Amino acid sequence: MNLKTLLASCGIVTMICTGTAWAGGGPFGIDSRLNYDNSGIWKRSNQKALVGVMIGGEIAGALWEGTDSRLGTTFWQSVDSSIMGGAGYAVLNLTTRRLRPSQTDDPNQWFQHNGRSFPSGEVTAVSSIVMPFVLEYREDHPAVWALELLPLYDAVARMKTRGHWQSDVVAEWAIGTATGYYAHSFRLPFTAAILPHGLTVGWHKEF
To answer: What is the pTM of this model?
Structure first.
């Protein structure tokens, strides 16, 4: 599967799972406010827990494994991807200033002083973390594609709690996927290259 196919699949799957057709507002004509649901698996606390565990897990995995193993290198690539994705999110979020669905039912409210909807930072984080693992292990272990269910869950959950519009999560899923693809192309992750060797050698060797 190439990058273009993957990005198209991300957008299609997200819209199917949210039950939203190409008949709304926003930049892609797909945005509409979903019925509010902050219960069960969609609960906001569960969304935060997922992102926290994934960010903490990638950092811990990178430090523990180091760059001398295939798994460790992939963890560090994931860290690279997260940094790039976070930078892209910050720039877009500060410049577009889109209002959230919790603030308005109009998805075309951009450049508002209190707008922070576009794009979705959490979907960026999750998608950028999983993509290097998918790319690294997809041939040996095709089941690794199931990791893409994590950003899909987060995308749907963010819309159900009215934190983001459909185009917010699709855009950041695409950005997170692209940064993961780019980070995976470097066999020596740039974070590992600039950090002191003691941090990247792998803590498990010290025990």
So the answer is: 0.85
For 25, the 3-state DSSP assignment is strand
Residues 9/13/15/18 CA torsion (nearest 10 deg): -160
Q: Counting Cβ atoms within 10 Å, is residue 112 exposed (0-12), middle (13-18) or buried (19+)?
A: middle
Distance between CA 168 and CA 119 in Å, rounded? 4
pLDDT in tens, 37-60: 999 999 999 999 999 999 999 999
pLDDT digits (tens, 9 = 90+) for 18-34: 454 445 799 889 999 99
Query: Which letter, b or e, does each residue of 24-61 get, where b requires 16 or more Cβ atoms within 10 Å of its Cβ?
Result: bbbbbebbbbbeeeeeeebeeeebeebbeebbeebeeb
